[in-house]
Amino acid sequence: MRPSSRRRLQSTLVDLLVWVILIAMLVPALWLVFTSVRNPVEVNAKPPVWIPRELTLDGFKPLFGQSTGATGAIPFDRYFLNSVVVALSSTCVAVALGTMAGYVFARYRFRGKNALFLGIMLSRAVPGISLSLPLFLLFARLSQSGPIKLIDSPLGLIIVYVAVNVPFTIWLMDGFFREIPAELSEAAQLDGCSEWQTFTRINLPLALPGLAASAIFAFLAAWNEFQIATVLTRTVNSKTAPVGLFDFTGQFTIDWRGMAAMATVMMIPAIAFVLIVQRNLVRGLTFGAVK
Amino acid sequence: MAQLTQASALEGRFSPARRAKASRFVVAMLAPSVVVIIFVVAFPLIYSFYLSFTSFTLLRPVTAWNDFANYRRLLQDPIFGQAFINTLLFMFVTINAAFLMGLFLSQAIARTIRGQSLLRTMLMVPMMFAPVMIGFQFRWFFNDQVGLVNNVLTSLGLLNGSIPWLVDRWLAMFSIGVATVWMNTPVVAIILLAGTLSISPELYEAADVDGANGWQKFRSITYPLLGPFITIALTILSLDVARGFDIVSIMTGGGPAHRTELLWTYVPRVAIQDSKFALGAAMSFVTVIVTIAFTLYLFRQLLKSRIL
Questions:
Q1: B31 lies in a domain?
Q2: pLDDT tens for each residue of B121-155
Q3: I need a surface site. Which of A11, A157, B202, B221 has the fewest CB within 10 A?
Q4: Where residue B3 falls among pLDDT bands split at 50, 70, 90?
Q5: Residues in chain A, pLDDT under 50
Q6: What is this model's ipTM?
């Protein structure tokens, strides 16, 4: 074989392999959606039924207040609402706080800056399991002694998710602000802008793609978080959708179809969010890497 | 923060009043983030560190010094030792596997001409999955009776009987690892893909003129220039894998019989199910130190590449 045709064959094989791997990576997601619309006999069928033969929306009934044979109605509307409230508000606050701090890290020099940056980043490395239990004790104590209720309340979760998402936002925004020429800020300051005006009027509008990228990470993390939510929530007052998935588990059985239906609905906001800011996502992750 | 300066050519021109204002500005901008992190992360950690030296339980909240009893028990606990080793092994293998997989995908996608943006969108699908749901989904895939994996192997005639994926120690660790790698590969691939696409095509053209083959081009152009992107990818990866509690706890919960016990499953078992809160606190403190040490190394690399 001539070298050029060998090379062409090689690259066709690599292309093929990539498509195979990526389609294989889609299997869990497709399987989830398919399971949600299957006839129950197909769910655990042997040999497996890949494409559902008949479509039924019965699996979605428990989500909308009707019981099926496998699962009674679950308060999905409450879970979904809690998730929306918690994820959106914690995302807004985390992005606001992280942008402010990220700006300062990018533009100013001060004593202890490196140590502070490292400390903030390491706070994200703390595993949830080391936080959830002491947080539960502390929140329980605060709820007892004061009027603010943090256990089994969306507020408690919002505060926790803000703290969890701030470090990554700072990191991303720091990278974005570094990309904006400092000369713009200097000119603004010579024209009499205060520090705050320089930040809001000059730098912030230019960093909007960064805000979008940070928002998606914060939103997905809060939307999908389970470990801390499972400790801090008790009832429909605060349970979020990932915790609510457990309503489909019995002591010995799992209603796979009902669970798949709920997970499918849960993925819709996530997909919408990712598609909206997809381009910024890639830029956001790698900004500041090219110097 | 008294010695504050603005990182600009104008430094010398600022009056003391201006610098005092800038200093207040820096404090005001940082304070909210720092306060919320202290309240939610630092304070609970210190509290649980303190409790780890007592015999505190949820039923008997005594907080008297108990002379390192928890730490001595932890050292003598064979299951803790196993969970510790399992965790290190698990993190090492899954981080490397997800990294290599992401590197391969990024290189392969970067050279495809048709369908690149479709491939990139497909790549993002696992990122939208809740880790809890990944746990449930793969638990069902690897179920020995009804799961898809055994089912497919049987239909293909490759398997007679069933493989106990989630029962045998190594098979179960493998299954959990597959789910973890599945979840974490996309972010690596996306970052490295962006890095690869940012490399100037002229470099490759020059290499073509010199007659370099694909591997040589990768070795001497792509890989060195990907350096900063690799550091970012590895850092995000180590943070995410270290937070992989959801998947493990749902797929096996550390069982059966502690075979797949990781620190993330063993700590809540001790602290909540056995209600030995203080012992759990001691264990979780060891977990924090391991995780942070793991991440610190990568972060130092990252900080070095930043212009501070």
A1: yes
A2: 888 888 888 889 999 999 989 988 888 888 888 88
A3: B202
A4: very low
A5: 290-291
A6: 0.87
Assigned CATH topology for domain A76-286:
MetI-like fold (1.10.3720)
Give the gap in angstroms from C-alpha A224 to the nearest C-alpha of chain B.
5
Q: Do A267 and B128 touch (CB under 8 A)?
A: yes
* Same domain (yes/no): B210, B252: yes
Q: Which residue of B has its CA nearest to A114?
A: B308
Nearest to A195 among B1, B5, B25 (CB): B25
Question: Does B290 lie in the same domain as B177?
Answer: yes
Q: Are residues B130 and B18 in the same domain?
A: no
Per-residue pLDDT of A236-285, as tens digits, reads 889 999 999 888 887 777 888 888 999 999 988 888 877 777 666 666 66
For residue B60, is it within any domain?
no
For chain A, what are the domain ranges?
3-56, 76-286
Domain membership of residue B51 (yes or no) is: no
Asked if the Cβ–Cβ distance from A286 to B194 is below 8 Å, we say: yes
Contacts across the A-B interface (CB distance below 8 Å): 281
A108 forms beta bridges with B6
A138–chain B nearest CA distance, Å: 7
What was the pLDDT predicted at B1?
39
- Residue B8's pLDDT is 46
CB contact under 8 A, A133 and B48: yes
Q: How many domains does chain B have?
A: 2
Query: B170: distance to nearest CA of chain A, Å?
Result: 22
Candidates A22, A86, A230: best to mutate against B (most CBs of B within 10 A) is: A22
Predicted local confidence at residue A69, as pLDDT: 64
* A13 in contact with chain B, both atoms CB, cutoff 8 A: no
B-facing residues of A in 165-224 (CB < 8 A) are: 166-167, 170, 178, 182, 185-186, 189-190, 194-196, 199, 220, 223-224
Clarify whether residues B192 and B108 are in a common domain. yes
d(CA B182, CA B229): 20
Domain that holds residue B26: 1-42
